[in-house]
Amino acid sequence: MTTPTTGSNRVVTAPSKQRRIGDSLRAFKQRLSDGDLGSTPVVIGLIIIWVVFQILNPTFLTAPNLVNLALQCAAVGTISIGVVLVLLLGQIDLSVGSISGLAAAILGVTFVQWDWPVVASILLALTAGAAIGAVYGFLYTRFGVPTFIITLAGLLGVLGLQLWVLGDDGSINLPFDSWIVRFAQQMFLPDVVSYIAAVAAAGLYFWVTFRAQRRRAAAGLGSMHITETAIRALSLLALLGFGSWYLNKDRGIGLMFVLFVMLVVCANYMLTRTKWGRSVYAVGGNVEAARRAGIRVNRVYISVFMAATTFAALGGILAAARLAAANQSSGGSDVNLTAIAAAVIGGTSLFGGRGSAWSALLGIVVIMSISSGLTLLSLDSSVRYMVTGAVLLLAVIVDAISRRSRAVHGIA
Amino acid sequence: MPIEDLHVVEEVPLFSLRGVTKNFGAVKALQGVDFDVYAGEVVAVVGDNGAGKTTLVKVLAGDHRATSGEILYQGEPVTIDSPADARELGIATVFQDLALCDNLDVVANLFLGREVGDMALDEVEMEQRAWALLRQLSAKLPTVRTPIASLSGGQRQTVAIARSLVGEPTVVVLDEPTAALGVAQTAEVLNLIERLRESGLGVVLISHNMADVQAVADRVVVLRLGKNNGEFRVPDVSYEQIIAAITGATDNAVSRRAQASTEGRQP
Question: Is there a contact between A398 and A41 (Cβ–Cβ < 8 Å)?
Fold first, then answer.
């Protein structure tokens, strides 16, 4: 057999060298110049937004304002986690606002009017959310109707359901002394606990990363130098510690915000460390490839839709608790589009397969910062909508440009 | 020529198709096709467009269910109704479009659908095994943590072939593996194919490229209009004979052209 033997005896082995910090920085720069931007633009954007608003109004970065900002982020941010999941599949859910409204209505009616225990009300609301997702998943996988249309129908249908559940009352106030309302409005991490949590989080990060990197080094794979691990852990500690200290000057870190961040961390873990998460990215990247690889694509779709609508329901419950009321406009107005915009602004691609759970957190902080900053400047919501719209447009343009840049650099 | 005289290595074929027919409505894509794959050989399936090559692949891969006919695995009748069945029987298929996820890195693609790890993914184990696989194929890749999108066509083909080996198959089916590749990359893929044969796998090579077929195949099965139209051992057959079997005649455009040019040279 005479075949050309180009490169047949050149064997590439695993690079077993340990990365120095300089290597990591260079790799990061390379990724940026290739158009693999990740969360970098939104972090830079957030810093710019904060600096500008602080210059325009010195109360913007004060502790009381930031405490409120954090609480404002939690409800819609939770909805946005679900939107990220759906966007990762390259699909969309336009009905998250309505679902959050329905969840609020169910909470109001069962908890206040029927005197159910609050936990039972919450469970029923979450189950209703999951059921709607199951229906979406069934319709999509069975009939192949575009999710844009399914969830547009859902937006109207679920809104109707919300009004029907609320009945003639239209508005139900949740008692201020109830656990759920206090959780959303008045419960904050005690100072000591917040510092312990900061140390614990940084310590956990260091320990987990250090062990993983040591295992990689032992296996002869490229690994991170311990100095870099330490620097990352210390930066995390500094960020969390300083944030806690600053917010503790006022009321502190709201428990609802803590819940939101924990949900983001969980979602991130599910997406990056489990088979399910891997299959979500695979389906979003190339559904046919995922199918041929033996992934049960329909299950992925249904599970993601159910997760997204459940997050939407949970967000609705949090919003109702924060407002201490469920009414006909719960989940209405701009909730829907804010949740979707947050995911996109945070860096999750509309084209599927790219993004992370963190974009829900980053995106909602950007949107709520703009909202809070403009409110402090006593500009009304007309300006707020226009500015948020412009930022969303900017985020989508950045997404499209970085996609093109990746294509140019051959890493579409 | 009886098939038994042709095989190279072993008596019992790994897989045999006997009288396999596949109809798409009124279209008869395969009509009573016989086909064998033996361990440690490269068998090429050639034929013109519409000859049924891809349908044959898809029957083996479990994408299409044969309308009638028998599939034997080491002499025992089996049914292949789904890609999962094919995979369980040890048939790995590399499709022409490669079916890779551009947004995932090499390791993730190699282990897609059969990730290692119970609760959490075991990235270290997967990356180690990825390197081992690529080394086994003497494949050139700068890193396994780069998204597929940043790889060249040949590298993607390499990843796709490496992925077919993750499930430790007995037969690897390659659908037009060199169709979109340049000269050097084609040579690399042909090297890979030889390495698969050396490791004792049965390799089914679907190709339009006679040079590739003659370079690596041990046996050539010719399909024409959904039927067997000849089967040759590569060392015994000429390019013209294969072309004749593909086009169904010794008198065809290719042979006339060859003849014309020979005559032209002789005064």
Answer: yes
Say if B134 is an interface residue toward chain A (CB within 8 Å).
Answer: yes
Closest residue in A to B167 (Cα) is A293
Phi, psi for B179 (deg, rounded to 5): -55, -40
More confident residue, A339 or B255: A339
> Whole-angstrom Cα distance, residue A215 to residue A220?
9
* Model confidence at B177: pLDDT above 50: yes
pLDDT at B11: 67
The per-residue pLDDT for B9 is: 46
Q: What gap in Å lies between CA B160 and CA A12, rounded to an integer?
A: 18
The pLDDT score that the predictor gives to residue B179 is: 82
Contact status, residue A80 vs residue A307, Cβ threshold 8 Å: no
* Six-digit token string for A55: 């210059």
**Total residues belonging to chain B:** 267
- Whole-angstrom Cα distance, residue A265 to residue A267? 6
For residues A143 and B256, the model is more confident at: A143
pLDDT score at B258: 64
| B225 touches A: beta carbon within 8 Å | no
Q: Both tokens of residue A379?
A: 């500009």
Give yes or no for A142 touching B (CB within 8 A). Answer: no
| Nearest-angstrom CA–CA distance, B233 and B63 | 29
Strands B15-24, B27-37: pairing is antiparallel
The pTM assigned to this predicted structure is: 0.86
pLDDT of residue B52: 87
CATH number at residue B55: 3.40.50.300
Q: Highest mean pLDDT range out of A46-50, A328-332, B187-191? A: A46-50
With an 8 Å Cβ cutoff, are B112 and A8 in contact? no
Residues of B in contact with A30 (CB under 8 A): none
Helix A297-323 and helix A335-345, axial crossing angle in degrees, nearest 10: 120
Please, which residues have CB within 8 angstroms of residue A387's CB and are 6 or more apart in sequence?
A370, A374
Contact B121 A409 (CB under 8 A): no
Tokens 């090499």 locate to B106
Kindly state the percentage of chain B with pLDDT values over 90.
Answer: 18
Of the ranges A26-30, A95-99, A398-402, B176-180, the best mean pLDDT one? A95-99
A-facing residues of B in 2-21 (CB < 8 A) are: none
Contact between chains at A6 and B187 (C-beta distance less than 8 A):
yes
Residue B233 to residue A294: CA distance in whole angstroms: 35
The interface predicted TM-score (ipTM) is 0.84
A3 to B147: CB separation less than 8 angstroms, yes or no: no
Phi and psi for A372 in degrees, rounded to 5? -65, -40
Residue B256: inside a domain, yes or no?
no
* A216 at B interface, C-beta within 8 A: yes
Domain count, chain B: 1
- Strands (E) located in A310-374: 325-327
**Nearest-10 crossing angle of helices B153-166, B183-198:** 20
Contact (CB<8Å) B102/A7: no
* Touching A: B residues 74-133, CB under 8 Å: 83-84, 87, 95, 97-104, 108, 112-115, 117, 119-121, 123-124, 127-128, 131
Q: Do A412 and B84 touch (CB under 8 A)?
A: no
Interface contact flag, A290 B112, Cβ < 8 Å: yes
| A410 contacts on B by Cβ (under 8 Å) | 149-150
Where do the DSSP E strands lie in chain B? Answer: 15-24, 27-37, 42-47, 68-73, 76-78, 91-94, 171-175, 202-206, 219-224, 227-233
